[in-house]
Design a protein that fits this description.
Layout: H1 4-22, H2 24-31, H3 38-59, H4 65-95, H5 105-137
Length: 138
């Protein structure tokens, strides 16, 4: 089932999930300067759903409806929690005069990149998997 392009996007999603977990120290040091308590919770959800997305996407052998649903649901949860974390960070930055952008820039851009990779990678893996499933039925 798995084409080379599918495997490349799977590798990209796996690397993004591992990178977000490995660099969580940057995120933690960034959120300690923020004033919103919610940021830590949504950051935790972003990293947790990212790891779950890695586990689910690597376990998919055949893209049937249940696997597609799990992929979309997990990718959506990771992306939404990451985007909301970035929104909360930006909102805190704009609302406060004591927060300097350079103090949380790395974390902010890592979260944005992670969200983009999760969305694009999952959509392309879903499309390739469903196209392969359709070709197998012929």
């Amino acid at each position: 089932m798995q084409r080379l392009s599918y495997k490349l996007f799977l590798l990209l999603v796996v690397l993004a999930g591992a990178l977000e977990l490995a660099l969580s120290g940057y995120h933690i040091s960034a959120i300690t300067i923020m004033f919103s308590r919610q940021i830590g919770f949504y950051l935790f959800l972003f990293i947790l759903f990212g790891i779950l997305l890695v586990a689910i996407s690597t376990s998919i052998k055949d893209m049937d409806l249940s696997n597609a649903f799990k992929l979309v649901l997990t990718s959506g949860a990771a992306s939404i929690s990451g985007a909301y974390t970035a929104y909360l960070m930006w909102h805190d930055f704009k609302a406060s005069t004591s927060i300097v952008f350079s103090n949380f820039r790395t974390s902010f851009f890592l979260i944005i990149a992670g969200v983009a990779i999760y969305v694009v990678g999952s959509v392309i893996m879903l499309v390739i998997g469903l196209l392969d499933k359709r070709e197998e039925k012929r």
